[in-house]
Design a protein that fits this description.
This protein is an alpha/beta fold. It has helices at 69-79, 82-86, 107-110, 141-154, 166-181, 209-219, 241-248, 272-293; strands at residues 12-15, 24-26, 57-62, 90-95, 99-100, 118-119, 122-126, 135-139, 160-164, 197-201, 228-233, 256-261.
């Protein structure tokens, strides 16, 4: 799944309009009251010796609730410094969810970032409050599943997914759906193929009864056999660490890594020990892809 002819810009933004055919590369919107940002070339660090510098992981990026691909691009680039820190190992492709925001946009989003805003689903419930039969449902989830499947098939190849908040929860649903229903980015692969990996930033399990049944079937006794990286904010009040930890346990321990940072519900800046850990984990994925492409094994994972 490596690409060798992509532009030197580390991060690309893809926008979706009314149909998938309208997807195109674009420069993301910046913060309010700032002028337009020019596309820039980011200096790349030298890649590790295990893989040629031309090999990179291509990662599909799924944004949070009622934000957008452009906003997630800003969060990773301007706030998190991810392309500068790991741009020699991977690049990100951003899409907007297929549903416009169906309600009020969170104040901390609207006050800093320009719209339009999108969501992967809207959580609603039906039945009588306080009575048996009150059911939570995710309106729009199936359309979002189909949308990502189509992006993965037509705009790939991709090596993995990174999701933040609702995008991270959605990534977990995509993983379970691949395991149980044999569809989407996480369809089980042939022996030796490492398959798609997943990076969760402030993730949690979906809360519907259907999702709980899906997780149980997908995880089995050992957990889903997917390489995962879970980034947890120790002071996250929106999705407390315990919820992210619970979500991480759906995946096999030997292919699971957990990194913690001292901030809250944010895309953290990569530096210090956390940067070393993220780079090491990404290098493992890159090496596994290289071994598989060369006809070797992924046993080192």
């Amino acid at each position: 799944m490596f690409t060798t002819s992509l532009p030197s810009v580390v991060s690309m933004c893809i926008a979706s309009a009314e149909s998938l055919a309208a997807i195109k590369f674009r420069v993301p919107a910046r913060f309010r009251n700032r002028g337009p940002r020019e596309r820039r070339v980011i200096p790349l660090r030298a890649a590790a010796a295990q893989a040629p510098a031309t090999m990179k992981l291509r990662v599909l990026a799924l944004h949070s609730f009622r934000t957008s691909g452009s906003i997630f691009c800003d969060q990773l680039e301007a706030l998190g410094n991810w392309p500068n820190a790991i741009g020699d190992l991977c690049e990100f492709v951003y899409v907007d969810a297929p549903h416009p925001a169906s309600g009020e946009v969170p104040e901390d989003v609207a006050s800093f970032f320009q719209g339009p805003y999108f969501e992967w689903w809207n959580a609603t419930s039906f039945g009588i409050e306080g009575k048996e039969g009150k059911v939570l449902q995710y309106e729009g989830l199936e359309r979002s599943l189909e949308f990502v499947e189509e992006v993965w098939r037509t705009k790939g190849p991709f090596d993995g997914i990174v999701g933040f908040s609702q995008g991270a929860t959605f990534t977990g649903l995509l993983a379970a759906t691949g395991k149980v229903e044999g569809r989407g980015p996480f369809v089980p692969r042939d022996a030796g193929d490492p398959g798609a990996f997943a990076i969760f930033i402030s993730g949690m399990q979906a809360r519907t009864e259907e999702a709980k049944r899906l997780y149980t079937e997908a995880s089995g006794e050992m957990g889903m056999d997917i390489a995962t990286l879970h980034i947890v904010g120790e002071t996250d009040r929106a999705i407390p660490p315990a919820m992210s930890d619970r979500a991480s346990q759906m995946f096999v321990e030997e292919r699971r890594a957990v990194i913690r940072h001292g901030r809250g519900h944010v895309v953290p800046r990569l530096d210090g020990d956390n940067l070393k850990s993220v780079r090491s984990w990404l290098q493992e994925q890159l090496n596994a892809k290289g071994r598989y492409r060369a006809g070797g094994t992924t046993a080192a994972l």
